[in-house]
């Protein structure tokens, strides 16, 4: 409110200006601190809630998968008991599944490390049921073929090399030895 001043005679006194609204002060550092703490707490709560929701959804999915797998195993076990033909097919499928799950990389690394420039491999035929590996290829000469076969004596993935067949052939004007080598496969 403005202070009243003495008016001159014949003039009208000024109209008082009344301001009933208290002026707001800018928030202090305590207000800003409380706002920041509240915002951080709200964000942390939301983040934790979101993480918990994701964990619950993952656990539900795992539970559904486990329940489905258990139900399939139960139905399969009941069928297997009832049907001997199905039992035989399941046994074959299990054996094939085990064969496909074998470690192939050590075997291929072992085969590649042996021949170098003197031997070229043409095919590798594994028979996991018998534990036999048949390798066919071409060697530069008989000495290279025998050296290749003997190099498997200290191999870890295969052993007991045996040359089954070899034949002298002429390829591109050069004489080569085509061969078939049988190895015992330790990974089978």
Description:
- This protein has helices at 29-82, 84-100, 105-115, 142-150, and strands at residues 119-127, 132-139, 158-171, 174-185.
- The protein contains four helices and four strands; from the N terminus they run αααββαββ.
- Helix 1 (29-82) crosses helix 2.
- The model has no long low-confidence stretch (mean pLDDT 81).
- Strands 1-2-4-3 form a four-stranded antiparallel β-sheet.
Query: Rg to the nearest angstrom?
Result: 43 Å
State the shape: elongated
- Per DSSP, the total helix count is 4
Determine the mean pLDDT: 81
* Biggest β-sheet strands, sense, barrel: 4 strands, antiparallel
State the end-to-end distance.
102 Å
Strand order of the largest sheet: 1-2-4-3
Strand content: 15-25%
Give the key terms.
elongated, alpha+beta, single chain, four-stranded antiparallel sheet
Strand-helix topology:
Blueprint: H1 29-82, H2 84-100, H3 105-115, E1 119-127, E2 132-139, H4 142-150, E3 158-171, E4 174-185
Antiparallel strand pairs: 1-2, 2-4, 3-4
Helix pairs in contact: 1-2
Gist?
The chain is built from 4 helices and 4 strands, in the order αααββαββ. A 4-stranded antiparallel sheet has the order 1-2-4-3. The model has no long low-confidence stretch (mean pLDDT 81).
């Amino acid at each position: 409110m403005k202070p009243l001043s003495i008016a001159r005679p014949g003039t009208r006194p000024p109209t008082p200006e009344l301001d009933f609204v208290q002026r707001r002060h800018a928030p202090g550092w305590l207000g800003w601190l409380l706002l920041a703490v509240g915002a951080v707490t709200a964000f942390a709560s939301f983040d934790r809630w979101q993480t918990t929701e994701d964990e619950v959804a993952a656990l539900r999915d795992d539970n559904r998968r486990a329940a489905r797998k258990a139900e399939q195993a139960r139905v399969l076990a009941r069928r297997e008991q009832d049907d001997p033909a199905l039992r035989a097919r399941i046994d074959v499928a299990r054996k094939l599944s085990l064969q496909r799950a074998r470690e192939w990389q050590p075997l291929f690394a072992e085969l590649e490390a042996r021949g170098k420039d003197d031997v070229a491999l043409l095919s590798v035929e594994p028979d996991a049921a018998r534990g036999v590996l048949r390798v066919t290829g071409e060697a530069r000469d008989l000495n290279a073929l025998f050296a290749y076969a003997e190099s498997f004596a200290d191999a870890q993935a295969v052993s007991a090399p045996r040359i089954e067949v070899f034949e002298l052939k002429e390829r591109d004007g050069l004489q080569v030895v085509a061969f078939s080598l049988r190895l015992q496969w330790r990974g089978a």
